[in-house]
Design goal:
Elements lengths: L1 H24 L7 E5 L2 H11 L3 E5 L14 H9 L2 E4 L9 H10 L2 E4 L29 H18 L4 H26 L8 E6 L3 H7 L2 E6 L9 H13 L4 E5 L5 H11 L6 E6 L14 H16 L2
Parallel strand pairs: 1-2, 1-3, 3-4, 5-6, 7-8
Helix pairs in contact: 2-5, 5-6, 6-10, 8-9
The structure holds zinc ion (ZN).
Subcellular location: Cell envelope
Pfam family, one: ZnuA
Main location: other
Length: 312
């Protein structure tokens, strides 16, 4: 009968282990979900909605260009061990394509921001953008970010149904703040005369902003920072500045200012004075020192820079 006793003992051990596991699975402040996010905008959103139930690791800090970012071995390890991997999609993280495929194969739970939107809500890239099917800079539409907020809350709730109410409450509170942000943007934009509502920047990150808030947006480089601006583009855009009497252009925190400086020079050689009106956050949030470390602060900082640069 010795073996029966052994079996019973083993069964006891197994059920004990299962019980222990179950307790460890309960998500709480002491046992948060491990979330790995690619860009800082996404890390901020996951922290906001996940609150104390998540521990978020953002792979790309201030000033980092996601089009160009190559995931390191430790990034890949962090993603494969994460409870949730959150990323933008639409080829923003161009060098992550294989890693994302591997995560899918391994069954890692992913939240893809672009999945919140349907095709009709996405902007098409320009014809010469070979690698992109859609414009990936979806966070600059506040209404898209609202849709994405609701989607992320639903996805977090799917992963952790016990805390659904908590995630939904956090999302609702955040949607109120996004509404306040929209009001702030609309009010400040009123300070810019309609004929001056041109946003000329280093690369084409602001089309969703332009569509939502009626700005004409021109990026010196295309949607993808890896396509270089040629001297032809610079001289064409210099003509555009002259023709439309545009006196202010903007650099971006995650793109070298070199091309914008060349553009200012080219306009100057046409007898048209253009100033560098400051730095915008495009594909990454700022630091705490910049007071631009959250999506809400980043967007306000951008609007202040844009309006102060373009208002009379
Ligand atoms: Zn970009």
């Amino acid at each position: 009968m010795k073996w029966v006793k052994g079996l019973a003992l083993m069964a006891g051990v197994v059920s004990l282990a299962a019980c222990g596991n179950e307790q460890a699975d309960e998500v709480s402040e002491d046992n948060p979900l491990n979330v790995v996010a690619t860009t800082s905008m996404i890390a901020d959103l996951m922290e906001t909605i996940g609150g104390e139930n998540v521990s978020v690791e953002g792979l790309m800090g201030p000033g980092v260009d996601p089009h160009d970012y190559q995931p390191s071995t430790s990034d890949v390890n962090a993603m494969s061990e994460a409870d949730i991997v959150a990323y933008n999609g639409l080829m923003l993280e161009e060098r992550f394509v294989e890693v994302f495929e591997q995560l899918d194969e391994r069954g890692v739970f992913t939240i893809v921001m672009a999945d919140a939107l349907n095709e009709g809500e996405l902007l098409d890239p320009e014809e010469d953008e070979e690698n992109l099917e859609y414009d990936p800079h979806i966070w600059f539409s506040v209404s898209h970010w609202e849709t994405i907020t609701a989607y992320a809350a639903d996805q977090l709730s799917e992963k952790d149904p016990d805390n659904e109410d908590y995630y939904q409450e956090n999302a609702e509170a955040y949607l109120v703040e996004l509404g306040e942000l929209r009001t702030y943007i609309e009010e400040r934009i009123e300070e810019v005369p309609e004929q001056s509502r041109y946003l000329v920047t280093a690369h084409d990150a602001f089309q969703y902003f332009g569509e939502e808030f009626n700005f004409e947006v021109v990026g010196l480089q295309g949607l993808n920072t890896q396509t270089e601006a040629g001297t032809g583009d610079i001289s064409q855009l210099a003509d555009f500045l002259v023709d439309n009497e545009i006196n202010a252009v903007f650099v971006e925190s995650s793109v070298s200012p070199r091309n914008i400086e060349a553009l200012i020079e080219a306009a100057g050689s046409r007898g048209h004075e253009v100033v560098n009106a400051g730095e915008l956050y495009s594909d990454a949030l700022g630091s705490e020192e910049d007071d631009a470390e959250t999506y809400l602060k980043m967007y306000r900082a951008n609007i202040d820079t844009i309006v102060d640069g373009l208002a009379d």
